[in-house]
Amino acid sequence: MDKQNSLARHGLTLSKDMLRRLCKLGIVAQPQVSLQHQNLAQRYVVRGIESGGAVGEIGRYVTFSGPNGEPLAYLHPLDAIGVNGVHAVVVAPALIRIELFRVGRTCQLFISKHEAASTQSGSRPSLVNTVVFGGVNGWFGGGAEDEKPQSPRFWSRAGEQREIPENFATAVRAATKGATCIGCAHAHYLAVPGTTIRSENPKEVFSQNTISG
User: Fold this and answer.
1) Digit-coded pLDDT (tens) for 138-163
2) What is the dihedral of CA 197, 89, 80, 190, to 10 degrees?
3) What range does the domain containing 199 cover?
């Protein structure tokens, strides 16, 4: 597995001390993705779990979208003991994972794409993982006490602003809300199957019956 593929597969790299602290605080985010075979449809899909939440000044959240940033219907919700844990399962031929970790108003953001490799032999394909965007030490205007936290902003080492890909702006805002949602008990981007989602852009309307793969 090449370096970029491995980096995209594993997502944000957090220290062991920070992971232990998150665990102690009861914030459970699961960025892992896996390749699964659907026997009836005879195809491979990628499986992910929207999860996470916040407590005080620390938050971590993982959500997923379609390849163009479109919201997806979850396969089914997940009940958990307590809050800030797992929220819903999603499966689709390709997933974009949006992972955000924050301390106060400083955050790390990682966006990656996951899909099955093309194969003609009938053998099990490998999972192809691609980095879409990675930002460290970003800053967002909203905080845990704000009703509508803003999307984070990132800069290069030279002080030039780095733009988050426009297609994923709405999903990143959802992840930001999740990472500032104290006692989070619901999914912020995956939606109930059969519902219609209206984007923050009034020109965009997504039907869950047509985008779930």
Assistant:
1) 998 654 455 556 789 999 999 999 99
2) -20
3) 3-211
